[in-house]
Amino acid sequence: MKAQRPAPGDLIQTEILALLGAAGPLSRAEIAQLLRVGTATVTDHTRRLIGEGFIRELKPHASSGKGRPRVPLQLVPTAAHVLGLRVAIDHLAGVVVGLDGQITDEFRLPLRVAESPVALLTRVLQEQIEARRNTTPIRGVGVAVPGMVDPVSGVVRLSAIMDWHDLPLAAELGRALPVPVLVDNDLRSSTTAELLFGMGRDHDDFLVLGIGDGLGMGVVLERRVQRGADGFSGEFGHLPVDRTGPRCNCGNRGCLQSFVGQTALLERARRAGVELGPGYGLSELVDAAERGEPAVLAVLEEAGELLGRSVAGVVNVLAIKAVKVIGESLVLWPHLGPAFTAAAVAGAIEPLRDLEITVAPWRDTEHARGAACLLLARSGAITRA
Length: 385
Ligand SMILES: [Zn+2]
Known about the structure:
Blueprint: H1 9-23, H2 28-35, H3 39-52, E1 55-57, E2 73-75, E3 81-87, E4 91-98, E5 103-110, H4 117-131, E6 138-145, E7 148-150, E8 155-159, E9 164-167, H5 169-176, E10 181-185, H6 186-197, E11 206-211, E12 215-221, E13 224-225, H7 257-260, H8 262-271, H9 282-290, H10 294-318, E14 322-326, H11 333-347, E15 356-359, H12 366-376
Parallel strand pairs: 3-6, 6-10, 11-14, 14-15
Antiparallel strand pairs: 1-2, 3-4, 4-5, 7-8, 8-9, 11-12, 12-13
Bound molecules: zinc ion (ZN).
């Protein structure tokens, strides 16, 4: 049997909900065994969850031995819904999620820049909450923003891509909306979803590498999503790799993302002589790679190698055994992946070379689901008490 897991108190309740959602009805003893916590802890938390109506007791199984009959507990996924919103450069992606982390509804809206961000988000969220008032009442709202966000205060310190500076988003939305609001960085939001419903099933420590225009890294240690001072952790794209390299949007030279970010890849392909046409973007790069253009394949292979070697550095520092890769640039993974994997494994110290690298198709709703999971991860935020 595995050692008892580190057990941050407020997460246990959520993990019980997540487990029942995935595995179906289980007895308290089975939950305790699967979550690697004590039975008394499970009994304590399930009492509260039954009180909330989030789980219910089923008819006891006849006991096979002498002990008391085992009472299976069942999740009531529809007992509460939360709304997650992803802010992207040109659109908003939203989802409604039940207690089991499953998406029950989703929406997508273009982002117009004419309105102030707070006014726009307030209006959209008010409409969405109101529209569901009689069907699936929303207990809380999570918002995932690209950039540096302090998740405790919910202040967006800097979102270069949105041009937001020191925006107290959680406080402003919280004043206007009838439910609790949590705001965090988009990658950390998705990392929270991974902890509850994905990688966290098998690992107490793991990394989530986000590849898109920027590069981010979610770090989970002892089942906690690491936030760092003021919530600025995870700025993997600004790993300094070459002091003579190109100027990065952070002001420094030669940051990792100025070599392997989406814009950098496009620019490097163009300089290598690849015809990308006016207004080219990621899909043109994918097409060129699929056509087997040698210059593009060389750029992507080199980028994959650099990325893999950089990840190996973090793996070695934190003794990590599992990495999940997410993000828009995953469409390039067939061309980035082989060099990435080879470099990450080769760069890892010997005891960490069985590094597990997981890739799944990227969906636009993922950061939105992550935002919803910010609420689920603090189940106290959505209880009636
Ligand atoms: Zn930088």
